[in-house]
Amino acid sequence: MSKVEVLVACMNQNDDSLYKEMNLHTDVILANQSDEYSYKEFVQSDGNMVKLISSFDRGVGRNRNKALMNASGEYLLCSDQDMIYVDGYDKIIEDAFLKCPQADMIVFNLEYLNRFTPARKSDRRFKRVHLWNSLRYGTARVAIRRSSLEKACLSFSVMYGGGAKYSSGEDTLFIVDAIRKGLKMYASPTIIAQVKQEKSSWFCGYTEKYFIDKGILIANAFPFLKHFLVYYFAYGMRNLSDEFGFIKICKLMKQGFDEFKRI
Question: CB neighbours (10 Å) of residue 207?
């Protein structure tokens, strides 16, 4: 049996159909936002188990936490329901950890078929990920040793992400927290899945809320560097929209700083 277990944050699932749709071939936990509380198990023809955990709980962070609490695999792979995995993804992950035994977390590349959210860059070589270059990664690309996760007492923020009050950031805070607690994270150039992403659960274009929420996230993740980082990020985002230039983005992000103080 594979040592990899896939944890899928999903919505409105009643059965195990995602197992085939996502080309899964390991044990799976479907943390399902639904209109009922239920628990179901589906044994696949290849012997793998799909656990469907449904609840009224809204927000990606809450459902990822639910999956983490019920996980039993040696290597845990966070996932979204719009992903299609390559054949042999479990061997790719297991081999990566075998070749880098000091790694607690390894982030892999994804191939995007559509783009409804800001692009994430791909890695071209195997390298160490540090705090300063960790913000480019999302947890849908991350595999983590369960033993490392449990020792570090890691969990996802319920304030950020699809279905939460603030649009995105649960991934960023999870990874930043992991690195600050001493977990060693590496990036692999290998592609493990395609992402259909026909729509986004949180990205509604570059709006005032988008930049305010970014300010809230920066204030949360980097409280001592936020006044420097606001200019760094505003400069990088200055050409994303004709409506929002450098000065306006800075003002909106600083508005996010003030809002974070009131949380």
Answer: 15
